[in-house]
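Consider the tokenized backbone below.
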């Protein structure tokens, strides 16, 4: 778990200070899948770090959104259950995590608060950008055998 936490921090730092092209490399190597997995862990700090990295990736997608479809990374986020993650985190007992999830929904998914109550989460609406994900090259939840197979199949590995 410690290695996964360090990888999460490294990706978050890289997406915070990296270029859009560098962030795209993370997307193409399926790091979103690992970040989503880490955002489901019991360590609230790591959940926040993973959410920061996911938010940075979605911001980078908006920067390269030169198509009418909009954010080019939304499909990848959805493919790796990022939208389901945001739904889950809107029920989180930690207020910082709850607020971060709501903020991501409102910023990237046109979330709108319903007037029914104080803690009602925004609803999600997405558009398909026609982007297909590459074969995962990096995933936090993979077994050692699968990681070795992935490492052998790719020149890009963490």
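A designed sequence for it:
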């Amino acid at each position: 778990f410690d290695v996964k936490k360090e990888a999460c921090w490294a990706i978050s730092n890289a997406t915070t200070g990296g270029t859009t092209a560098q962030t795209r490399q993370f997307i193409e190597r399926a790091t979103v899948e690992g970040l989503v997995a880490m955002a489901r862990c019991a360590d609230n700090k790591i959940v926040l770090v993973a959410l920061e990295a996911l938010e940075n990736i979605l911001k980078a997608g908006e920067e390269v959104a030169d198509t009418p479809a909009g954010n080019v990374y939304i499909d990848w986020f959805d493919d790796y259950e990022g939208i389901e993650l945001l739904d889950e985190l809107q029920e989180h007992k930690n207020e910082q995590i709850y607020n971060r999830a709501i903020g991501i929904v409102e910023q990237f998914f046109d979330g709108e608060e319903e007037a029914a109550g104080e803690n009602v989460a925004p609803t999600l609406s997405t558009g398909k950008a026609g982007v297909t994900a590459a074969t995962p090259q990096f995933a936090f939840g993979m077994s050692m055998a699968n990681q070795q197979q992935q490492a052998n199949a790719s020149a890009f590995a963490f």
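The mean pLDDT is 73.
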